Amino acid sequence: MERNILRNQKGIVLIVALLMLLILTLIGVSSISTTTYQTKISGNERVGTDAFYVSEAGIQVAINQLPGNINPIPKTQLKEDSYYWSGGPKDEGSPKSMQSFGFYQKPGYDVNFAFNRFQVNATGESFGAMKEIEVQVSCGPFGAGTQYNN
What we know:
Radius of gyration: 32 Å
Number of domains: 1
Mean pLDDT: 86
Order of helices and strands: HHEEEEE
Helix content: 40-55%
């Protein structure tokens, strides 16, 4: 009687092997989908970083114009599919000029000197991703107040 039970269980190895293959296939498919998702995330991060650096280039162009020129920076191509302009993402067609907050005194300088503060906004676009940077810049010292020449 014992020998008949063992003879009837010979097909169980095939079923166990098929179940193991199914489990390994599910693990493989899950790993592939996770890898694909992570690749998309890293690609989006790269494009966002490119947009940030393009907007940083726009900030540098604007700062180099200060304090004499606060005119808007038009949409300028930096490299293929990468542009920057002054202002926010909505100002792409009509860039905004830099904003001056006027002169102010700084500790450590007497009243004959003043500094001028500006706000510079620049937006960068790279492969469809946009990043905006806002910077406040202090320029000076400039002659201010009453100065006596001897």
